[in-house]
Amino acid sequence: xxxxxxxxxxxxxxxxxxxxxxxxxxxxxxxxxxxxxxxxxxxxxxxxxxxxxxxxxxxxxxxxxxxxxxxxxxxxxxxxxxxxxxxxxxxxxxxxxxxxxxxxxxxxxxxxxxxxxxxxxxxxxxxxxxxxxxxxxxxxxxxxxxxxxxxxxxxxxxxxxxxxxxxxxxxxxxxxxxxxxxxxxxxxxxxxxxxxxxxxxxxxxxxxxxxxxxxxxxxxxxxxxxxxxxxxxxxxxxxxxxxxxxxxxxxxxxxxxxxxxxxxxxxxxxxxxxxxxxxxxxxxxxxxxxxxxxxxxxxxxxxxxxxxxxxxxxxxxxxxxxxxxxxxxxxxxxxxxxxxxxxxxxxxxxxxxxxxxxxxxxxxxxxxxxxxxxxxxxxxxxxxxxxxxxxxxxxxxxxxxxxxxxxxxxxxxxxxxxxxxxxxxxxxxxxxxxxxxxxxxxxxxxxxxxxxxxxxxxxxxxxxxxxxxxxxxxxxxxxxxxxxxxxxxxxxxxxxxxxxxxxxxxxxxxxxxxxxxxxxxxxxxxxxxxxxxxxxxxxxxxxxxxxxxxxxxxxxxxxxxxxxxxxxxxxxxxxxxxxxxxxxxxxxxxxx
Length: 592
What we know:
Sig_transdc_His_kin_internal, alpha+beta, single chain
C-alpha cells in the first residue's frame, strides 16, 4: 500500500492533499447550498404570506363596506316599518324613497355588486336593481328554512348559481332575513356579489403556474381560476379549513394524486371566511432544487479540477527532487566526507562544491536566524491582528443595516463614512508606522462608530497635545486599548461610562493614556495581566487577549524593550493603560 500511496513526493502529495481538498470543497458546497436553500425557502414563504396579507386586507375593506351598506339599508326605519303592512297601505312615495336609497348603493358599488333586492311580506313590497331585465323571484321557504341561528339575521353565501334572477351567472351573496314572528311578517334584503370581481382580485397575485388563491366558507369554496384535479383541495383538507378556529396558519398535505401541497391561510374579518393560498411544493421550492443540482455539479467540477491541479503541482514539485535523488545515488556512502577535491561526474562536483559553500554559509545563516525570527514574529502579530477586523466590520455593517431599516439614512451615511476612514487609515498603504495624528484620527472614527452602536452607554474625550501629533507610532496601537476599555470597562458598570484618551510628552518619550471609569481590575488579576504581557507569545493566556499582547510586542520590536504598555487600575475606580514610545519623526526602517 505504501509503495503506491506514500512512496514518492508526488504520490504523497496526491495521497494527502486530494482527500483534504475534496472534503473541504464538499463541506463548503454543502454549507453554501444549505444557507442558500434556507434563504430561498424563507423568501418564498414570505412572498406567499405577503400576498395573502395584502389580498385579505383589500377584500376585508371591500366586504366590510358592502356589509355596512346592507346593514344600513336593512335597518332603514322606512323598510322595517313596512314589515307586516298591507300592500294597499303602502304609499307610492315609500317606493320612490326606498328605491332611491337602493339605487344609490347599487350605483356606488357597481364594481362588486351584480344585483340588489328588497322583498317584504313575501312579495307585497318588492324592489331590485340589476344588470339583467328579468323577473326575479325569491323562495322564502328556501331561505328561512336553510339559514337560521344568527340573532340579527345576517348571512353570507359562497359561490352559487343566481337562481333569483334566473341567469347562468355565478354569484356570492350577503343578505339579511327579517322575521317578526308571524308567517307573513318577513322580509329579505339581499346583495349579490360579482364572481368576476373576486376572480380579478385573486388572480392579480400570481403564485406559480399551478398555485392559486381560494375563498373558503362553511358552505363552500371559490377558486380564483380553473384548477387541475391533482392540485385541488380534497374533502378532508377543505373540511379542516372550514372548521378550524385558528385565524391564520400554514400546513402541508398530499393530494389524492400524490402531489405535495402547501396551504397558507388567513381569516377575513368581515365574514370569517378563510383566504387560502394553495401551492404545489415543487413550484414554491423549484429554485431550491435548482441550487442543489447546480451545487452538486460545481462540486464535481471543482473536485476534478483539484485532482488535476494537485497532480500537476505534485509532478512539478517532485521533478527537481527526483533529479537530485538520481545524482545522489551515484555517490558511494564512504565518500560522504567532503574532501577538498573530488572526482566523478560533473554533477557530483557541482553538488560537492555546493555542500562546501553551504558549510561556509551556516555561520552566516545562524547570525541571520535571530533577525528572521523577529521578522516572523512581526508577521505573526500582523496576521493575528488582522483577524480582529472582520468581527468589527460585521458588527458595524449590521448596525448600519439596522439604521437603514429604521430610516435613519443620515446616521447610516455618517457611520459608513467613519468606517471608510477607519479602514483607510488602518490600511495606511501597507505601512506599519504612521503619525500620532493619523492614529488619533483612526480611533476617533472607531469611537464614533462604537458610540453610534451603543448610544448613550458611554462617552469619550480625546485630549492630545498638538506638539506630539507629528511623531511616529505603530499603527493600530490605541484601538485595541479602547476596545478593551469599552468591553471590559465601561460596559461592565452601571450608568454611563467615560473613556479618556490623553497624549503628552516628557523629555525623551511620548505617553498615550487610555482610561475608563469602569469597575477596575482586582490586584491579583492585575499582577497576572502584567505577567502575561511579558510572557512568551506561545504561552497560553488567561486574562489578556491577542490585541493587548500584539500592541505590546510590536512596540518592543520596533522601538526597544524599554517601551511598551503599562496597566494600572484600582478595583471599583477604573483602569488606565499607558503606551510609552520614543520621540521619532519621519520615515524609519520598518524591518528593524
